[in-house]
Amino acid sequence: MLQRLVRHLPLRIRTLLRRVPLLVRLYRWTRQGKLTRERYVFVALAFLVLAVGLGGDSQERAASGALVLIVLGGGLLLKIRTVVALLGVVAAVIAYNAYDAWDDGRGLGLGVIATLSITALLALTLARTRQQLGVQGLRGDSMLLELRDRLRRQGEMPRLPAGWDAQVVLLQAGGSSFGGDFVVSARDGDRLEVALVDVSGKGTDAGTRALMLSGAFGGLLGSVQPEGFLPACNRYLHRQGWDEGFVTAVHVEIDLSTGAYTVESAGHPPAVQFDASSGEWQVSPAKGVVLGVVPEMDCVPDHGTLMPGDALLLYTDGLVESPGSDLDAGIEHLLGQAERLVPEGFARGARELVETVAAARDDDCALVVIWRTWPPSPAAGKQGHLET
């Protein structure tokens, strides 16, 4: 942190700082990593415990919230063995305070001891978790946030040519940052490929598997022939031998020059095309088994063409499935709500559609809309939107 701060300082200020010997030594000391070495952190925290625990009135010393903060800091910064040593120092200080309070005819409150005991257990739990992960401090949380951001960036649609636009909406159950639905896409010239994947489960329970699969599926998309994408994903999942449920996916290949498309499905809710000439929604007959169940899978693809004004909807079962209801009824309800997208515009109403349909369901929801504009809109050619 200090090195980054120094690098961003103006050259003149850095030149002046180099003339101060004490600052130069401190900078070199931090660059060697000595500031964050565990023994220095332990010594500093132990001195803080002694300073807080041996100053002032005995009850005030023991009840000080500073001891709680020091113990929590040790849980975040120290390994479990060093945390035990720090807790030993804290216990010695508490014992001294208890003896001092007993001599004065006062007792040390049980609430103080209970509070520090609970804090000690929390600190040990934090230290053990971090030691298992091999990270210090809040780095584990930072890694998860970085993975989440990478997943979102991977779900962004590539830049589309004039006359085309797209919208991606992801809504995780319970307001979580992680979910079991994700999107991967790739564009090579006039060929656009998009895959919407649904990992069974919801929220953080499915988030870890979704994070791993998004990288694997993203690497396969565009690297294999379009007709071989879902079979390659199936072989990959079958090798994993997972027992935590199933994975469904829908894959679309679109020729951006002609509008011709091919839809393949692996146990996923059917894609839907909006026909601007008739104003009707047509459900795709593409079907196939869920991924990872059998070693080799066969898909029944569906072919069609998107004309100006037409649109293609991909969605997950969180938008159409609910306990006690038929899947076809859920699709009809979704399409009934989707009628508002036509006059309002697909870009405006996609987010509202997902929020409206998902309001009565506690599940991860995802929607991908790809459409041809008529005439080409001024915003066409920009990168597709991603909303979470």
TrEMBL record:
One of its GO terms (molecular function) is phosphatase activity. Residues 165-372 form the PPM-type phosphatase domain. InterPro entries: Bact_Sigma-Reg, PPM-type-like_dom_sf, PPM-type_phosphatase-like_dom. It comes from the Bacteria. Pfam families: SpoIIE. Its EC number is 3.1.3.3. Gene3D superfamilies: PPM-type phosphatase domain (3.60.40.10). Keywords: Hydrolase, Membrane, Transmembrane, Transmembrane helix. The chain crosses the membrane at residues 40-56, 83-102, 108-127. This is Phosphoserine phosphatase RsbU. It comes from Actinomadura rubteroloni.
